[in-house]
Amino acid sequence: MHHTVHNLPGFIQTLAPFIHKYGYFGMGGLIFLEDFGALVPGETVLIACAVFAGLGQLNIFLVGLIGFISAVIGDNVGYAIGNFGGHPLINRYGKYVFLTPKRVAKAEAYFNSKGGRIVIVARFIDGLRQLNGLLAGLSEMHWLRFLAYNAIGAGLWVGLWTTVGYYGGDHINTFLRYELYLTIAVIIFLIVYFVKLYMKKKQEKNS
Predict the structure, then answer these.
(1) Which class for 65: exposed (0-12), middle (13-18), buried (19 or more C-beta within 10 A)?
(2) Is the N or C terminus of the chain more exposed, i.e. has fewer CB atoms within 10 Å?
């Protein structure tokens, strides 16, 4: 492809030694860990690997395939933790990752009201992506339903970032900036939505 090593963004230059040493499986391992709550740069490494595939140093098909499989398995581990560990686990350890019972209850209600759509959307939002499977498991979403929507979300997510990295490596910072704007917009939308829902319930209670 048309990218050259010297004009790639700094974060990709920084990840180069890791990618050269661990390759596809290093990328897959980080995506897997990120997708059930670990604070690791899974998405960043996926994008960087796609950029290196554009340089001809990796195979873009394998980057996409391993990224997709890792994302689906990681989310399902999160689902299993939420489903089998349940609320006792969150009540005991959730406070260490800012998951109070009250916040979890609100998130569960939102998952139940939006169903599979939120599983797809959450894949593209930092914070929700890492907790997606866990919250779906806690809300007792049917596993096959979660699996189907999760696979769709993972496919779209991997497809987007491998395409962007492969064809737009020199301009990746611009794409990431737009992703940040989108994330902020979604967070603002969710805050407004919950505030309106709260006000509505308060009015119903007072009437």
Answers:
(1) middle
(2) C
